[in-house]
Amino acid sequence: MAEYMVFIWDDERSWERAGPATVAATMAAHQEFIARHAAALRGGNRLHPSMASTSLRHAGDGGVSISDGAFAETKEVIGGYYLIEAADLDEALRIAAGVPAPFGGVEVRPVLPASQATGTA
Fold it and tell me: At CA 64, angle to CA 61 and CA 68, rounded to 5?
């Protein structure tokens, strides 16, 4: 079994305009997803809006540059995530296809365990 991160990409402005019924229905759909895939889930959370983020970059002089906000200004930002365990990518994709993302989509990426990291991609 391998672990996969499922990043939930959202258009935050669409969420700001969404009515209470849309928000409630989406949260209920997440609860249903969690119940349906409990055996595969290893974690997951909703994130605060991107304006609450702080970005750090290492500078060439060895220092660190800190700035408010996300690294890139884009329409869609990571709004949450699930960490899942699956036999292979096909199974991970089948699970991820059920993630509610009415204002965006999801990205599935295999997790590289620290014990296997070599510093190269």
Answer: 140
